[in-house]
Design goal:
Elements (H helix, E strand, L loop, with lengths): L16 E8 L16 E3 L12 H23 L9 E3 L1 H11 L5 H10 L6 H11 L9 E12 L6 H11 L2 E5 L5 H15 L19 E12 L10 E4 L9 E16 L8 E7 L5 E8 L4 H7 L2 H9 L2 E10 L1 E8 L1 H6 L4 H4 L12 E13 L3 E13 L10 E4 L4 E7 L5 E7 L6
Parallel strand pairs: 1-6, 4-5, 11-15
Antiparallel strand pairs: 1-14, 2-5, 3-17, 4-6, 6-14, 7-8, 8-9, 8-11, 9-10, 10-16, 12-13, 13-14, 16-17
Helix pairs in contact: 1-4, 2-4, 4-5
Length: 439
């Protein structure tokens, strides 16, 4: 996407607000004439001739940090009464990228709390560069599409700090657009929502609800990621059959369950890693270095396992995977999660950003986070996976063993899943399935 910059600086005297959105899907495009709002002005940006060099060790550390942040987020959400035993999917990469775009503009305690929640000790600019390096696009093939882009929507005339814009351009190729939030907030909201919806191939609708964007809004940041990937080894539809799935409440509905036997990376254990028995298998996608990891706790042990899993333990599980024949059964599933993430982020120690924020690196106007939301959808079937997500934050003023037969791994009870870049380890999507038929 072409880089852009803001118009000449002019200080606003009215209250300021900042809205940030990470819509994980296809690249955002300027202008959305069908929204009914005036098309935003698209600006050109001054971007560096080449991206700054990033230490590979910093990129690896940032990938591990995103793993840890994602598990923290999953635990925080499943601790809420309305999500404890439910299907859930989040995008650690999407929310971490959103906060990586925000962090270079934060100062003092606000920056310190964000960095701690993100598990990074890097300088905010270096963290942005490392996150941007993790987000480098994967070349599209006939079997895999993974697209990502970042954009900044600003109130006409808002004086955004040039250093902040330069960091976003260098790290994320951020495009810049202008909109008139002050005079037509709902029209601007529809314009941004339409761009997010288009970016996600229609899978994320109405990211910003009514009143989320108001006349106090001054900025909207968007991160877009869209994944459509075929399995390296597809499931044959003729092998799909209704089979029992053992839910947490003790019921056992019959659900469409795919099956195949083949060579996969597999591991299992009892006790040692997380204190509960488990099985794990990795399903690679075709053409791209991406894979879905499925982790199946022992019967009756899902809740304790999921609660106790942390990033070092996840690393040990994934590090134990080795090729062997597997008789695999996996239910089809297709669901979405929409969450207000402010309580979860507060539980992770992000307080100042909401209450006594310092975002002086973005603009001189006083800013504070008002709301953070994320919408994610995932669909898993015989051919592969389609997934997309949108996140938004509103900021207002104020070796293989020899075996005679394949090991069985039948995911007929609640399980966890992770979609990751197997080269960097960066987690794109993370979740749990407790009811394959739930929407």
């Amino acid at each position: 996407m072409t880089n852009r910059s803001t118009a000449p600086r002019r200080t606003l005297r009215r209250p300021a607000a900042l809205l940030l959105a990470a819509a994980l899907a296809a690249p955002l495009l300027a202008g959305c004439g069908s929204t009914g709002a005036a098309a935003p002005v698209e600006l050109r940006a001054s971007a560096p001739a080449s991206r700054p060099a990033v230490d590979p060790a910093q990129v690896a550390a940032t990938a591990a940090a995103t793993d840890a942040f994602g598990l923290d987020l999953l635990h925080a959400l499943t601790a809420q009464p309305d999500a404890a035993g439910s299907n859930l999917v989040v995008s650690p990469s999407g929310l971490a990228t959103l906060l990586a775009m925000l962090l270079p503009g934060a100062r003092g305690t606000t920056a310190g709390e964000l960095a701690k929640a993100l598990h990074t000790g890097l300088d905010p600019r270096q963290y942005a560069y490392a996150t941007g390096a993790l987000n480098r696009p994967v070349p599209a093939t006939g079997k895999l599409t993974l697209r990502r882009s970042n954009d900044l929507w600003t109130q006409q005339g808002l004086a955004v700090e040039p250093d902040y814009l330069a960091t976003l351009a260098a790290a994320f190729d951020t495009g810049v657009h202008q909109a008139d939030f002050a005079k037509d907030p709902d029209g601007a909201r529809r314009t941004v929502n339409a761009a997010v919806e288009k970016a996600t191939d229609g899978r994320i609708k109405d990211l910003f609800g009514r009143d989320a964007i108001t006349s106090n809004t001054r900025l909207v940041l968007t991160d877009a990621l869209y994944l459509k990937a075929e399995w390296a080894s597809a499931f044959k539809p003729s092998h799909t059959a209704d089979r029992p799935f053992h839910k947490l409440d003790g019921s056992t509905p019959a659900v469409p369950t795919m099956g195949q036997t083949g060579e996969f990376k597999y591991a299992d254990g009892s006790g040692g890693i997380v204190g509960e028995p488990w099985q794990a298998v990795e399903l690679p996608y075709a053409d791209g270095g991406l894979a879905m990891d499925l982790i199946l706790p022992g019967q009756g042990g899902f809740t304790a396992f999921a609660k106790g899993l942390d990033q070092p333990q996840l690393d040990r599980i994934l590090g134990a995977l080795a090729e062997r024949p597997v008789d695999l059964r996996l239910p089809r599933f297709h669901f979405g999660t929409s969450k207000e993430l402010t309580p979860a982020l507060r539980s992770l120690g992000v307080e100042a950003a909401f209450d006594r924020a310092d975002f002086g690196g973005i603009a001189k106007d006083p800013l504070a986070v008002g709301t953070v939301v994320q919408k994610v959808t995932i669909e898993v079937g015989e051919q592969g996976t389609v997934a997309a997500a949108g996140s938004g934050a509103g900021i207002d003023v104020a070796a293989a063993p020899n075996v005679e037969r394949p090991v069985e791994m039948h995911l007929d009870r609640p399980f966890l899943f992770l979609i990751r870049d197997t080269r960097s380890g960066a987690p794109l999507f993370l979740g749990q399935v407790t009811d394959p038929q739930a929407p």
